Amino acid sequence: MKKKIVYVAMAGDIIHPGHINILQIASKKGDVIIGLLTDKAIISYKGKTFMNFIQRKKVLTAIKYVKKVVPQTTLDYRKNLIKLKPDFVVHGKDWRTGVQASTREKVVKTIKKWSGVLIEPHYTRGISSSKLKKKFYGSK
């Protein structure tokens, strides 16, 4: 039987326990493919990065839960989703409101076409890349 495909999009600039939780949950459903945001995509909404795409890809590829890393050139998942047709998409519940809410809606509509399932684990409290960057830089 073919293993299920699980898509997880992320910036991967500062890997923290919340990311590991998401990847661990995702790996229980099948082979995890990370849609790694390109530098341009990250800068469009999060500002500067600590590491470039190649460096972030190297870190993520070394994580045991990750099968493959592919570029995600925009905040919109649809191009990669249509290409990969994952059985599952995993993202923390934090995207239900705010900047990413419209992205979430597009993901739900897209994966519905092939009966894909969205899994939204609870957000890991007390840690986020944005908070860590703010602490380091003093802002974005």
If you had to describe this structure to a student in words, what would you say it looks like?
With 140 residues, this protein is α/β, with parallel strands linked by helices. It has a single domain, classed as 3-Layer(aba) Sandwich (Rossmann fold). It is 40% helix and 19% strand. It is built from 6 helices and 5 strands, in the order E-H-E-H-H-E-H-E-H-E-H. The protein has a 5-stranded parallel beta sheet, with helices on both faces. Strand 4, helix 5 (101-112) and strand 5 form a beta-alpha-beta unit. The longest helix is centred in the C-terminal third of the chain and has 12 residues, at 101-112. It starts with a strand and ends with a helix. The mean pLDDT is 89.
List the helices and strands and how they pair.
Blueprint: E1 5-10, H1 17-27, E2 31-37, H2 39-46, H3 53-61, E3 66-72, H4 78-84, E4 88-90, H5 101-112, E5 117-119, H6 129-137
Parallel strand pairs: 1-2, 1-4, 2-3, 4-5
Per CATH, the architecture is 3-Layer(aba) Sandwich
Q: In one word, what is the shape?
A: globular
Write the CATH homologous superfamily. HUPs
Number of strands: 5
Query: Average pLDDT value?
Result: 89
| Amino-to-carboxy terminus distance | 45 Å
Number of domains: 1
Rg over CA atoms, rounded to whole Å, is 14 Å
Strand order in the largest sheet: 3-2-1-4-5
Strand content: 15-25%
Structural class by helix and strand composition: alpha/beta
Which CATH class is shown? Alpha Beta
Note the main attributes of this structure.
Rossmann fold; 140 residues; five-stranded parallel beta sheet; single chain; alpha/beta; 6 helices; 19% strand
